[in-house]
UniProtKB/TrEMBL annotation:
AMP-dependent synthetase/ligase domain ranges (all copies): 6-354
Pfam family, one: AMP-binding
Source organism: Sabulicella glaciei
Protein name, UniProt field: Acyl-CoA synthetase
Presence of the UniProt keyword Cell wall biogenesis/degradation in the record: no
Domain AMP-binding enzyme C-terminal: 415-488
Region (Disordered): 155-180
Keyword Ligase: yes
């Protein structure tokens, strides 16, 4: 990381030289709290400078920065902190109530919530009473780390699992060759090269924004952190800071296109050079409209936290082959297999197994068996189904597993079903995704229940256990569920009527 460059947030600016100094001070302090190679430092923060500082500090020590989704409820946060064996959690003061059920013995460092975050989220002045030491005091009383850094580890991102509990993707330290390969990979995918002017509109707790943001903090002339995505503010920041590189998800593009034409034309976006989107299927009409508006600057990739990004696609390639997510990137391997494990032919859909040479090997933290369960001859599947055309372009057409992608966030029905079945009066349930114009998919719950149980009652019962974004938007009450001769629930029968005529398979 060079010392030239800066991070911006609201009216605040942090020069990269100061960021490096603060990260080294944080590393000294975290080491004093017992953090060493392979240990976890949890980050319960919105987009803010200390998120980057603490991530860098954990990296210096050879530890894992573990972002925490602050939309979660205390029960969910407590599970992650216990599962990753966090030594320390760094948290914004307004998010401290989420630590109410945290395991004992974890050191807490409190970050004052800055004005732009308080304004964006409508937070009252002051927030919760600080817990543990304040971040600024913590940095002030420690000198800069002056020992050789430990082997670098990527952030340990928790991704929801089919067993109903999130699982941490824990990678080994990369070799020098892999570090160089990841640099080339992220330059192609995200446009991350020295001297860019970058904008981060998505949350740093999410896998792709985390990768984009932390890498940009190393390379960019400026990196602008958005406290919260707002479509018109996004356009204003692009114009004001002459942004050339950013990362968005389809829901953001939908909201940008919903702005009145006069508002959209008010802003000069000619500085944009490389806009990446991923994380969820993008409706073709949305992508085409963005390309018509911004020009051929839109890039897409296919990948996952577990996989890395294995295909890439430019605007020109997509316009020639609408719907493709691109061809294999450098060092990527892919096989598309049928149910018998045979390679599928051109145009024949099958389950996608892939790998990326520059990504260090991984396991799911404390869940090696889950890792083995998604592997085929060294390649990994996240349950997507697709096919390749005669020129090797990949098209996604289905999902083998039940995952819902809503607004770019992966949501696994098993977790919601486990909470639902625990509600008094619920006899059986099935959760699945249904079409949604803004978010791509919305959560629907089909329920068999005792008389008197209402949708309002179910929502109230779930709110204490699940993050709000996991609570179904729609409930359907059934007298019976379709099952095969073995008794297996035929969830697709419940789901298909919602997707009939949607113009895409799911």
């Amino acid at each position: 990381m060079t010392e030239e460059g800066a991070l911006l947030s609201g009216k605040r600016r942090l020069e990269r030289a100061a960021l490096l100094s603060r990260a080294r001070r944080a590393a000294t302090g975290l080491r004093a709290l017992g953090v060493g190679p392979g240990d976890s430092v949890a980050l319960l923060m919105r987009n803010d400078f200390p998120f980057v500082e603490a991530s860098q500090a954990a990296t210096i020590l050879g530890g894992y920065a573990v972002p925490v989704n602050w939309h979660w409820k205390p029960e969910e946060v407590a599970y992650l902190l216990g599962d990753c064996d966090a030594k320390v959690v760094v948290a914004h003061e307004d998010l401290l109530p989420l630590l109410s059920e945290a395991p004992a013995g974890i050191a807490v460092l409190t970050v004052r919530t800055p004005p732009e975050l308080a304004e964006a989220y409508g937070l009252a002045p002051g927030g919760a009473a600080p817990s543990g030491e304040e971040w600024e005091d913590f940095l002030a009383r420690h000198g800069e780390w002056d020992k050789a850094p430990e082997p670098t580890r990527e952030s340990m991102i928790y991704t929801s699992g089919t067993t109903g509990r999130p699982k941490g993707v824990r990678r080994q330290p990369p070799t020098p060759e892999q570090v160089a390969g990841m640099g080339r990979n992220r330059a192609q995918l995200y446009g991350l090269v020295p001297g860019i002017r970058a904008l981060l509109p998505g949350p740093l707790y999410h896998s792709a924004p985390n990768s984009f943001g932390l890498r940009s903090a190393h390379l960019a002339e400026i990196l602008v952190l958005m406290p919260r995505f707002d479509p018109e503010e996004f356009l204003g920041l692009v114009e004001r800071h002459r942004i050339d590189t950013t990362f968005v998800v389809p829901t953001m593009m939908v909201r940008l296109l919903q702005l009145p034409e006069a508002v959209r034309r008010r802003y000069d976006l000619s500085s944009l050079r490389h806009v990446t989107h991923a994380a969820a299927p993008c409706p073709p009409e949305v992508k085409r409209a963005i390309i018509e508006w911004w020009g051929p600057v839109l890039h897409e990739f296919y990948g996952a936290t577990d996989l890395g990004a294995v295909t890439a696609c430019t605007s020109a390639e997509w316009l020639e082959r609408p719907g493709t997510v691109g061809r294999l990137v450098e060092g990527a391997t892919m096989r598309i297999l049928d149910e018998a494990g045979r390679d599928c032919g051109i145009g024949e859909p099958g389950e996608i197994f892939a790998g990326l040479a520059c990504m260090p090997d991984f396991t799911y933290h404390k869940r090696d068996s889950d890792r083995r369960g998604v592997e085929w001859d060294g390649l990994i599947s996240v349950g997507d189904v697709g096919y390749r055309d005669e020129e090797g372009y990949l098209f996604l057409c289905d999902r083998k597993r039940d995952m819902i992608i809503s607004g770019g966030v992966n949501i696994y029905p098993a977790e919601i079903e486990a909470a639902l079945i625990g509600v008094e009066g619920v006899l059986d349930c099935a959760v699945f995704g249904i079409p949604d114009a803004e978010f791509g998919e919305a959560i629907c719950a089909a329920v068999r229940a005792s008389p008197g149980l209402t949708e309002q009652g179910l929502r109230a019962a779930l709110r204490g256990h699940l993050a709000n974004f996991k609570i179904p938007r729609r409930f359907e009450f059934h007298e019976s569920f379709p099952r095969d001769d073995s008794g297996k629930l035929l969830k697709r029968v419940l789901r298909e009527p919602h997707w009939a005529g949607a113009g895409r398979r799911i």
